[in-house]
Structure formats: structure tokens, C-alpha cells
């Protein structure tokens, strides 16, 4: 019996092995559904010793007012669903499906012995700008609605919550709307039981930013927020201070210019106090305004240099994080460039001095104009493959005055969709979403594919309908990663 137990324990450890974190991938929960928790927060609960993820629940046809979903995890990669933590109530004055229930944050209140949820509560035209409050005895909920209030009499749009590890005090971060009188981001302290706000600690005046979060290092506070460009991502900025009340630094851009923070918006961050290392993660959203319910998550390690007073969000296609030790490592993959690619139809290789080989593959259109990468090594198990691309459909968003397709009566396409076929198996077409980029900016989107064991695999990329057209994005290279 003892032997069986030991074997079982061994099997169990290999099963519960931590999963990789894959920014921008289709994340599935333990039941095989898409992780559906947008613009939310992660709360580590000491009692259950689990990470709890809360976020906006969005499905096709119900993009707002869907309530707040909740998931739990031991490793930040494997997510078990627990349904809705805050369920919309028909006819309710603040939390019906007709209302805005956005950017939920949860914190435990020692004083009340309950979990407190706060969020941006609004009517469908964003005319109220309130903060909603609900409580629960357990992290998973259900949370019971308490109130929706105007914070210290002001307006509150995008909502963030930060707890200072030095004294346990929690703070609300909120942009106060788009009106001329607004356009500030407030940092206000909660009372000790986290039932109401006490006082304004700092105001980030007139920067017109939103989606705020704070990272606390041993020496500094780093506030991150995005510009206001709706669901279009932009260059997120950071501010640094020694104390929450300031003085705060000038804003600075936290990721390589024009990557638009790797096509994501800020909103949350998490500090992992490991036994060997303290790691900070940027927890952002990659909105898909053409189908909000398919929006993805961009969680990335943050590199902080206290001496130089710099903070950088760093891209990794895939990384392995050990939440116990705090250590993480980027996973190495095998790169296949345009040199191992054959074009067909109207697809062709074009000079591009910013591309890996000095040329990029363009003209991928419909099913006939394709590119096929050959000689790809596989393992027979599901593997993540990152497709590095450029998609300039944005018409120069942010660079050209107006820079918008509506200028010529067009619509925001925002993403192209490519078909991806392994070893010519057209019965199984994978859809690769490729968000728009600045010109000359190469970003990547991961897809999980199963390649045959050996080195003779092919991956063929064509164009699929994105609602307007059948174009695939321009391809620079693909990188194939080892299985988890
Ligand atoms: C939302 O609230 C504002 C302010 O009270 C009001 O002007 C607006 O009509 C409301 N929108 C809806 C859809 O009721
Ligand atoms: C909110 O604060 C701004 C300044 O940040 C002020 O101009 C405005 O009047 C305040 N609004 C309310 C409703 O108190
Ligand atoms: C929370 O604290 C405030 C004072 O800071 C007090 O007025 C209120 O009754 C407390 N609420 C709860 C639920 O303990
Ligand atoms: C391409 O092929 C897919 C599936 O094989 C099909 O659904 C789609 O309509 C085709 N598109 C074009 C433009 O032929």
C-alpha cells in the first residue's frame, strides 16, 4: 500500500506541475473554457493559500454588466473556475445587467473579517461615476451588494486598489472621468476596515490617464497607468515616489516605444515575495474591441532598477514562474525565419530593414496566398508557437493626425486573423489573431499546436475573414517552444 501511495504522490506532483505563463495566448481554465476575468485583480489569500483572480465576465451579446467572475490558482498558471463572485441582479439599481460593473478589486478586511470587493459602478452611459462595494465571508463569494458611492464626493471611473505592505493600509486609485473638471487620477486612503474612503493622499493632476495600479518595492512606489484611447492600447506610463503622498516623478514610458505596452493596457500588478527572489508582474489586458469577450491577458515580469529609478515591463513569449521561490525564467524556443519559409500565390518576401532577416513576408491573403514554414521540429505533444508579425491596418494610430480609418469612412479592423494549418491538415484550421501594430514594430501572438514527433513538420499560414477582409498579417518568424 505504501508503495502505491508513493507512486500516486509522484504522479500527482507531475500532474500539478506549474504551468507556463503565456501572455496573449488563449488561456483555458481547468474545465477547458476561456479564462473570463477581464480588467480585474489577483488577491493572494493567506487562509486558503491560493491566488484568487477576479474580473469582468464577458460573453458575446453581454459585454457589460455580466458581473464579476472568480478563479483560484496555486501557481498563477492553472485556474479553477468558481462561477460568479458578484452576480448581476435583475431590476437592481446598481448591479443589473444594464449597469457597468468594471475593474473589480478584492481585499480582506481584518476588522470586519470579510472580503471586500470594490469596483467602478456606473449606468450604461457612464453618467454616475461611482464606486461599488460588496462583501463576502469567503474569497469565492457570493458577494453581497452593500452600496455604490461617490468617493469623497467626487467622480470615479477606472478603479484600482493598492494595499501598502508596510502598514496594511489600502488605497483606492481612480481616474475622475473625462470632463474638463476631471482628467485626474486620485490616490485616496481607505478607512481601516476598508468600508469607505478617508482622504485624498495624492492627485495625479490633469495627466488624463486611467487604468491605474501601484507596485511597491522596498524603496519605492511605482504607479502605472495608461493613456485614454478606449480599447486601443497605448504606451503605459509609470511614476515613482518614496512616499505615497509624493513627491512623484515625471511620468515615463515603461515598455519599448510604439509597442503600445506590447498591445496591452495596465490595470493591475502583483508582487510575489518568494523564498529566493521578489518578482513583480505587470497584469494587463489585451482588449479586442471587435469581440470584447475574446480579449486576452498580458502578464509580464517587471524589471526595476532603484538606483537608476527605472521600471521596465519586459516581453517574454513564455515564462516559467515559481510562486514559492519567486524565481522565473523565460523559456527558450527554436526560431524559424523567412529563410525556412516558402510562399505561394500572391504572398511574397519584401525588403524590411526592421525584420529579422531583412525581409518580411507580406501579401498573405485568403486561402491561396500562403506561407509555409518547413522542417519544423515537434514532440507529438501540444506546444506553444509564437508568430512574430506586423499588422499596419491602424493607418498610423497615434502618429497621423486623426490617424483613423473613420477619416475615410472605414472601420477599425484592429486585428487580422490568419489561418494556421499543421502538416497540410486543412480539417483542423487554427485561428491566429494578430492585433494591429505600429509600422515596423514586430510583436508576437502565441498559438498552441500539436506537431508530429520529428523534424519534418510544416506550418502553413493563410488569411482568414476578420469580418472585413481575408488578410493575414506580415510574418517575420515563428518560434516553437518545448512542451510544458
Ligand atoms: C446615466 O446617468 C446620467 C446622470 O444621472 C444621466 O444623465 C443619463 O441619462 C443616465 N443614462 C441612462 C442610460 O440612464
Ligand atoms: C472632482 O475633483 C475635481 C478636481 O480634481 C474638481 O474640479 C471637481 O469639481 C470634483 N468634482 C466633484 C463632483 O466633487
Ligand atoms: C468602519 O470604520 C468606521 C470608522 O473608521 C466606522 O464608522 C464604521 O462603523 C466601521 N464599519 C464596520 C463595518 O466596522
Ligand atoms: C478559406 O478556407 C476556410 C476553411 O478551409 C473557409 O472557411 C474560408 O471561407 C476560406 N476563405 C476564402 C477566402 O476562400
From TrEMBL:
Signal peptide: 1-18
One of the record's GO molecular function terms: hydrolase activity
Gene3D superfamilies: Glycosyl hydrolase domain, family 43
Annotated organism of origin: Aspergillus cavernicola
CDD domains to which the protein is assigned, alphabetical: GH43_Pc3Gal43A-like
Alphabetically ordered keywords of this record: Glycosidase, Hydrolase, Signal
One Pfam family per UniProt: Glyco_hydro_43
Superkingdom: Eukaryota
Protein name: Glycosyl hydrolase
Family indicated by similarity: Belongs to the glycosyl hydrolase 43 family.
Amino acid at each position: 500500500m505504501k508503495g502505491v501511495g508513493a507512486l500516486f504522490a509522484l504522479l500527482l506532483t507531475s500532474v500539478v506541475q506549474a504551468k507556463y505563463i503565456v501572455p496573449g495566448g488563449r488561456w483555458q481554465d481547468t474545465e477547458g473554457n476561456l479564462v473570463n476575468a477581464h480588467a480585474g485583480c489577483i488577491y493572494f489569500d493567506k487562509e486558503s493559500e491560493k491566488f484568487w483572480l477576479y474580473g469582468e465576465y464577458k460573453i458575446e451579446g453581454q459585454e457589460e454588466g455580466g458581473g464579476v467572475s472568480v478563479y483560484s490558482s496555486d501557481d498563477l498558471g492553472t485556474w479553477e473556475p468558481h462561477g460568479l463572485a458578484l452576480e448581476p441582479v435583475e431590476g437592481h439599481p446598481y448591479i443589473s445587467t444594464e449597469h457597468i460593473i468594471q475593474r473589480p478589486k478584492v481585499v480582506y478586511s481584518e476588522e470586519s473579517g470579510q472580503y471586500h470587493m470594490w469596483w467602478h459602478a456606473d449606468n450604461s452611459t457612464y453618467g454616475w461615476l461611482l464606486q461599488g462595494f460588496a462583501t463576502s465571508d469567503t474569497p469565492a463569494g457570493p458577494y453581497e451588494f452593500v452600496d455604490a458611492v461617490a468617493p469623497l464626493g467626487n467622480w470615479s471611473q477606472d478603479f484600482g486598489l493598492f494595499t501598502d505592505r508596510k502598514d496594511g493600509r489600502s488605497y483606492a486609485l481612480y481616474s475622475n472621468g473625462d470632463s474638463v473638471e476631471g482628467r485626474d487620477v486620485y490616490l485616496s486612503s481607505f478607512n481601516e476596515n476598508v468600508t469607505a474612503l478617508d482622504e485624498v493622499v495624492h492627485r495625479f493632476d490633469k495627466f488624463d490617464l486611467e487604468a491605474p495600479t501601484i507596485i511597491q518595492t522596498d524603496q519605492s512606489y511605482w504607479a502605472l497607468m495608461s493613456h485614454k484611447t478606449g480599447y486601443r492600447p497605448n504606451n503605459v506610463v509609470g511614476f515613482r515616489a518614496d512616499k505615497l503622498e509624493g513627491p512623484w516623478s515625471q511620468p515615463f514610458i515603461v515598455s519599448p516605444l510604439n509597442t503600445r505596452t506590447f498591445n496591452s493596457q495596465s490595470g493591475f500588478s502583483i508582487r510575489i515575495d518568494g523564498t529566493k527572489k521578489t518578482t513583480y508582474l505587470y497584469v494587463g489586458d489585451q482588449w479586442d474591441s471587435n469581440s470584447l469577450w475574446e480579449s486576452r491577458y498580458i502578464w509580464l515580469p517587471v524589471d526595476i532598477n532603484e538606483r537608476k529609478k527605472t521600471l521596465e515591463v519586459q516581453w517574454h513569449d513564455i515564462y516559467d514562474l515559481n510562486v514559492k521561490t519567486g524565481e522565473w525564467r523565460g523559456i527558450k524556443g527554436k526560431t524559424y525565419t523567412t529563410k525556412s519559409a516558402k510562399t505561394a500565390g500572391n504572398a511574397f518576401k519584401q525588403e524590411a530593414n526592421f525584420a529579422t532577416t531583412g525581409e518580411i513576408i507580406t501579401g498573405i491573403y485568403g486561402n491561396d496566398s500562403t506561407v509555409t514554414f518547413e522542417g519544423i521540429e515537434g514532440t507529438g505533444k501540444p506546444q506553444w508557437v509564437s508568430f512574430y508579425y506586423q499588422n499596419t491596418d491602424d493607418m498610423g494610430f497615434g502618429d497621423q493626425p486623426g490617424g483613423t480609418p473613420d477619416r475615410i469612412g472605414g472601420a477599425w479592423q484592429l486585428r487580422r486573423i490568419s489561418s494556421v494549418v499543421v502538416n497540410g491538415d486543412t480539417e483542423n484550421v487554427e485561428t491566429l489573431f494578430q492585433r494591429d501594430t505600429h509600422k515596423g514594430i514586430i510583436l508576437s501572438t502565441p498559438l498552441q499546436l500539436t506537431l508530429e514527433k520529428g523534424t519534418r513538420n510544416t506550418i502553413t499560414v493563410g488569411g482568414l475573414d476578420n469580418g472585413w477582409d481575408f488578410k493575414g498579417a506580415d510574418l517575420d518568424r515563428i518560434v516553437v517552444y518545448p512542451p510544458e
